[in-house]
Design goal:
This protein has helices at 15-30, 49-61, 91-108, and strands spanning 41-47, 67-69, 79-84. α1 packs parallel to α3 (91-108) and α2 packs antiparallel against α3 (91-108). The chain has a 3-stranded antiparallel β-sheet, covered by helices on one side. The chain is of the alpha+beta class.
Length: 110
């Protein structure tokens, strides 16, 4: 513990950014996003707001929380899911994300 009483992580801090980027790249591959992210955020363009919202709800119902951005936050026709990678994701988390996102996006992209 540090002096503020907050539990500190046993992993070296330098490990975290590498893990975040590795996990973001994995999420991008899962979602067929061509551009490998340079941060923790992965945007999955779905087009129409109803499509993005339905996909976000389906993800949440299946245990994966994602953001959903629609107009006026983004331009018309570019509604999207926003995934945020964390260093703390483990292989089970990534497998759940793979299963849920693959299923949800196959429906959303029809």
């Amino acid at each position: 513990r540090d002096v503020t009483g907050v539990q500190t992580c046993a992993l070296p801090i330098s490990w975290r950014p590498e893990a975040v980027l590795r996990h973001a790249a994995a999420l991008a591959r899962i979602c067929d996003v061509a551009e490998i992210p340079h941060s923790a955020v992965v945007s999955v363009l779905l087009g129409e707001p109803e499509t993005a919202l339905a996909a976000a709800v389906a993800c949440l119902d299946a245990g994966v929380r994602v953001g959903c951005f629609r107009p006026p936050t983004v331009p018309v026709g570019t509604s999207r899911l926003r995934l945020t990678a964390r260093a703390s994701l483990n292989s089970d988390d990534l497998e759940l994300a793979r299963t849920v996102l693959t299923d949800v996006l196959s429906t959303a992209r029809r």
